[in-house]
Design brief:
It contains two helices and 22 strands. It is mostly beta strands.
């Protein structure tokens, strides 16, 4: 089988994170018993921390394994910060829409600061531009904070929309391109206040890949600890009004520097439009 090598982009890379400061003022372990004023302060610190994060920082090359027998077009890939699927460029093909649906996972947090992002996007796998949106878990001092967000790298850092997202919320996310205009949309069917629609323009974006990703965000010192999200199941995924398996697709497994799995990715379902990522370890 042909073996391929690509450059995978670090998403949510921190330009100047201050993790120690975040831990020092983070909330107590049981968020439900935290006084409202203390939790409000902790949330303010958490949101300030997220302002240092951006998407699209280049990563190192990732290793590529052989194609899985009996599955057309699938290549298995190892990444230090991504788990999930990416459809990449084929001759004459550009990507104009990507969608996905999931139920927001619930995190089990420790005192260590950690993050986990879930998103859909166009570009980023084989290009230096990326247009994406989704949800984010931030664990701080044993408490979990949940956010909806969007990003268009390299124009701006991560844009947090709301922090009222909760585990179990029904999320639909999409990025749709028309010419050089991109509509980024996240809908929380459980809590409408978490929803948003954002329009961005980019005349130089490559439109060469589409992604459905669970991610360990990165900081100036490298990949940050991954929050224990247990599992993230994506369904009803489309790309150019078709399904993930309609195009050459890459299955990504998240590994640490020693090659140990941090988050595993399951096979596509029978319809080719969904899969599950499972947390294995934080670092």
């Amino acid at each position: 089988m042909q073996r391929r090598s690509r450059l995978l982009l670090f998403s949510l890379a921190a330009s100047a994170p201050v993790i120690g400061m975040l831990v020092a003022v983070s909330p107590v372990a049981n968020a439900s018993s935290t006084p409202a004023s203390a939790r409000a302060h902790a949330l303010k610190v958490a949101r300030n921390y997220l302002r240092h994060l951006s998407i699209g920082q280049h990563a190192t090359d990732h290793a590529v394994r052989v194609n899985r027998p009996g599955v057309s077009g699938l290549t298995q890939v190892q990444s230090t910060n991504w788990a999930g699927y990416a459809d990449d460029h084929t001759s004459g093909t550009t990507y104009s829409s990507v969608t996905g649906h999931w139920t927001e996972p619930s995190a089990s947090c420790t005192s260590t600061t950690s993050l986990a992002a879930f998103w859909v996007g166009i570009d980023g796998f084989t290009s230096g531009s990326v247009e994406q949106d989704g949800t984010l878990i931030e664990c701080s001092g044993g408490s979990a904070f949940y956010f909806t967000w969007w990003e268009r790298f390299p124009t701006n850092s991560i844009q947090v929309v709301v922090s009222t997202l909760r585990p179990g919320d029904s999320i639909s996310a999409s990025v749709v391109r028309s010419g050089s205009t991109y509509t980024l949309k996240v809908t929380d069917s459980t809590r409408s206040g978490d929803s948003f629609t954002r329009t961005e323009t980019c005349s130089s974006c490559a439109n060469s890949s589409a992604e459905w990703i669970a991610e360990a965000p990165s900081g100036s010192s490298g990949v940050l600890p991954l929050s224990n999200f247990h599992s993230w199941s994506l369904s009803s995924a489309t790309v150019n009004s078709r399904v993930i398996s309609s195009f050459p697709d890459d299955e990504l497994t998240m590994v640490n520097g020693s090659g140990a799995t941090k988050a595993s990715t399951g096979a596509l379902n029978g319809s080719g439009n969904g899969f599950t990522c499972t947390f294995v370890r934080s670092t």
